[in-house]
Each structure stands twice: as structure tokens, then as C-alpha cells.
Amino acid sequence: xxxxxxxxxxxxxxxxxxxxxxxxxxxxxxxxxxxxxxxxxxxxxxxxxxxxxxxxxxxxxxxxxxxxxxxxxxxxxxxxxxxxxxxxxxxxxxxxxxxxxxxxxxxxxxxxxxxxxxxxxxxxxxxxxxxxxxxxxxxxxxxxxxxxxxxxxxxxxxxxxxxxxxxxxxxxxxxxxxxxxxxxxxxxxxxxxxxxxxxxxxxxxxxxxxxxxxxxxxxxxxxxxxxxxxxxxxxxxxxxxxxxxxxxxxxxxxxxxxxxxxxxxxxxxxxxxxxxxxxxxxxxxxxxxxxxxxxxxxxxxxxxxxxxxxxxxxxxxxxxxxxxxxxxxxxxxxxxxxxxxxxxxxxxxxxxxxxxxxxxxxxxxxxxxxxxxxxxxxxxxxxxxxxxxxxxxxxxxxxxxxxxxxxxxxxxxxxxxxxxxxxxxxxxxxxxxxxxxxxxxxxxxxxxxxxxxxxxxxxxxxxxxxxxx
Length: 469
Hints:
By secondary structure, the protein is of the alpha/beta class. The protein has helices at about 65-80, 100-110, 130-150, 165-175, 190-195, 205-210, 235-240, 270-275, 290-295, 300-315, 360-365, 370-385, and strands at about 20, 20-25, 85-90, 90-95, 125, 155, 180-185, 200-205, 260, 315-320, 395-400, 405-410, 415-420, 425-430, 435-440, 450, 455, 460-465.
């Protein structure tokens, strides 16, 4: 999945200056790097083409090569067996733009207040997506990307702003072109259930929060720390393991609608969150040596591995954000911009086209053991359909303690999880011989050893086993 690639306002108002009644006192970088201020829905962003420039007053995309190059990119990724999903923003356009729709008929295309002013949300003027003409504009653009660029699906930014009527129209139209089109988005505001009923997937915030704890308050911890948020328990862990399609807090009609994640581009990345939660760092720390900073403490390493086990053995669709598999960090890079937070960890680097956002492949070698752990778990998930296509009645759960859980799927795959920071737990395997595939120390899809009888799950760790006979 890419961040937005269709044309967007990537240059903002000059810092500490006014333009068209707006004063920029929030963005010293004067940039919008992530693409959430869209402009033209059918044009690829020429800033990413080989003839790009960031020189003021100069044009991007004069010869249209972005079209050719993006089509070639999609084709190349397909040759490697990878589907291409575009992050799209269809609920607003950039409030900076002299957008043609604003001059054709703003009363048709935009949401307006009682004074005939644009209604804005986050970073743009809201489109009237329930109007037939806007629906036509949106759907034709999406169909264009499917037929001309052959993209495989879409991630809809802030899709909770869409009505069920419009969301239903979108999925029906796109499935008429490709019945297997991938459709999911941000159905926040408790609308995940509603979107699932019409066939949409969505980011499963419950999956993240049951494991990590509160999104912003790192004192409120989740299962990975041997704790729960208020009102949660082992039952909530069971629910997310089963794709949040089970129990009193069921969200999804199908486990395929649950996009399970530990981090995305928004907010602090997972391992920076762990650096705060474990007390290794504070949010005001200045990081002078990035490679020393990302070196994993035993505690953070173990939490990362347990989180990876849960992510890659749960029903649903696992999402791995860039660099998550090596515990990457987001440090505000040196810059000429007047940023007073240089050197701190960044929770929202949307405006930085620099090392803050760029993938640092050197980090991958620093934490290669964690990369190998992820790689092994991915291989196990691919090899065992029970971890991807199980139904509710395929599971047999065993509560081992308040913060430890075991479960068997179809009497052929066993997973044990211990969130306790203090105590190991022991249990007896079901009858027969079992091949250990993953434990606290290593992952081997071909098997680490054969086990039977009593086993012990160390603190802050997981185990995955496959029955031999």
C-alpha cells in the first residue's frame, strides 16, 4: 500500500506568512509530504516522477512522464507478485487550490456552512460526497485507476466521513470491474461495524490498543506489558485473535475485513512507543546517535517478538509498516527549517521529505535478529492455512492465567501467548507429538524441535507449534 500518489498540494503557505486569508504558523517545512491534500483525482503526482523539481516557481510534470512511469511501476510490482493498493482521499480537496470544482459550482460539489463558506476538516475543503455529481466524479476516478493503471485496490482515508449510501455505491461499482478489488479504510468513530456490513475492511484500532494500550497515554498499558486497559481482559485478546469477528465486542462480518496493525504512518511508530512505555526514553529526549538509539533493550526486543507472534498468527489481514520489522525510529532530522524539535522522536512527520520519513536500510542490519524473526513468522503464516482461514468453531482456547492464553486451531496448530513481565506459565500440550516452530528465542518454519507433554512459556513471549501425529 502506497501513501497518496494522485496529484496533491505538496507545497504549503510560506512559514509565518499570510496567503488568501490563511496564516501558516504550524508548518515550518512549508510542505505536505504525505499527500493528504489532494487536487486532481485522475493525475499521478508529478513530484514523484523522474523530472521532478522542488525549485520555487518551476513546473512539475511538463512532459507527463509521471503517467508512463507510474504504469511501469505497477507493472513491475505485479511481475514480482505484489498487489498495488492506493491510499486515496475522496472526501476533500486541498483548501489551498484554485480547484476547478470550486468555480464550476461550489454549491454542488462542496459542503458549505450557513454563510456559504467551505466546511473544512483536517486539511481540506469537504466535498459533498452524497451528491450525485460528486459520486460520479469520485467513482469515475477510481475506475480510471483500475482500468488504466491496473491497481488492485484502495485504502480510503477518513472513510468514516462517507455515508453508507455512498460507500455502498463505491464498492458495487468497483466490484463490477474486479470482483476481487481490495477495499478498506479508516472507519473510525465506531463505524467499523457499519462498513463491514457493506463489505468494506478497515483498520482495526482495537487490535492495536488491546496489545499496546492507550494510543497517547503510555502509562495505560495493554497485554504486551502484562496489563489491560480499563474494562478489558483475556476475552478481548481472544476477540482480536479471531479477527474481531467473535464475542460480545464483535466488529467484523468477515475476518478479511480486519486490518490488524501495530503501527501505521500516523502517530509514533511502534518501537518508539515502546521506548516511551518502558522508560528507555522520554518524548523530550534529543537523540544524537540514531544507531545507538535503535539498539534494542532485552525488554523491547521481547515485546517486539511477542507482538509479531500475535500479529502474524491472528485471523485477519496483517499490516506491517515500513521499518516496523527492524524496530525503526522516526527522529526529526537536521534541517534548514526553523524546527525547535530537531533530534526528538516525531509522532506526525507528514511535512518532512527528509531522513525523518525516509526508509533507513542501515537500521535493518542493526536489528537483523528481529527482521529474521518476522521473516520466519511470515513463512509460517503462509505455510499454515489455519492461521489465515479458521472459523470460530475451529478454536479451542485455554486461559493459562490473567495474562496468558493458549489456543488450538483444528487440533493441528497450537499458539501460546504469555504477556506477563514477571512469571512464566506452564501447560500440557494436547495428546500427540508437536513440532515447535517459534519460541522466545527463534523461528524456524521447518521446526526447532519435537515436543510433547508439559511445556513452559517464558514471560513476555509466544510459542507456535504444529501437530505431527
